[in-house]
Amino acid sequence: MAEKETAIRALAQLADDVYWVREWPDKPTWRDRLRRWVYPESYRFDRTAALPRPWVDRPAGHYERTGWRIRAAYFRSDLAFEVEYVVCDLCEIGWVESPYSYEGYKRCGLASAALWSLRRAYPGVQWHTGGGHFRESEPFWDSVSVDVPGGYTQQERCHHVEPRQAQRG
């Protein structure tokens, strides 16, 4: 177990080496389907098989949250960590939501490394969260917010990243 934990901590050190993805397939492509039909015994749909790096930055895929992205870490083919975020270049504010380390990957520094990497990728940005922090997560937020502009405090998103719904009348 100590060997795996060491490998996961090494993964955290690679958080700046990110593979940026424009589109993230939710389902197999027509080529994947053809491979499944031609080679049914060896076919396996694995989005992570072709990833050149263990850290990935991809669209969030929420239709109601256009512009949001996910920074994720993969350990081998396992999803180890992910956090959703959006940045408004006009306001120079970023929001992070739902940082989550999956079972077996908690307390290995992946969340802190991901947030640190996002701050380096977007210099000069103030960082906030859209919602409040759960009581049990307050020590985490206290530790990662030291010397961070915005301090990951709760703040509503600006109208550039979350347009107000039209008033019905």
The overall number of domains is 1
CATH class: Alpha Beta
The ordered H/E elements are HEHEEEEHEHE
What's the architecture, going by CATH?
Answer: 3-Layer(aba) Sandwich
Radius of gyration: 18 Å
Portion in beta strands: 15-25%
Q: Strand order within the widest sheet?
A: 1-2-3-4-5-6-7
Query: Ends: how far apart?
Result: 61 Å
Mean pLDDT: 80
Number of helices: 4
Stretches where pLDDT falls below 50 for ≥5 residues?
A: 165-169
Describe this structure in words.
By secondary structure, the chain is an alpha/beta fold. The protein has one domain: 3-Layer(aba) Sandwich (Aminopeptidase), CATH 3.40.630. Helices cover 24% and strands 24% of the residues. It has helices at 2-13, 30-38, 110-121, 138-144, and strands at residues 18-20, 55-59, 69-75, 78-88, 93-101, 126-129, 153-154. Strands 1-2-3-4-5-6-7 form a 7-stranded mixed β-sheet, with helices on one face. Helix 1 packs parallel to helix 3 (110-121). The radius of gyration is 18 Å and the shape is globular. The N and C termini lie far apart (61 Å).
Topology readout:
Layout: H1 2-13, E1 18-20, H2 30-38, E2 55-59, E3 69-75, E4 78-88, E5 93-101, H3 110-121, E6 126-129, H4 138-144, E7 153-154
Parallel strand pairs: 1-2, 5-6, 6-7
Antiparallel strand pairs: 2-3, 3-4, 4-5
Helix pairs in contact: 1-3
Protein name: N-acetyltransferase
Organism: Streptomyces lunaelactis
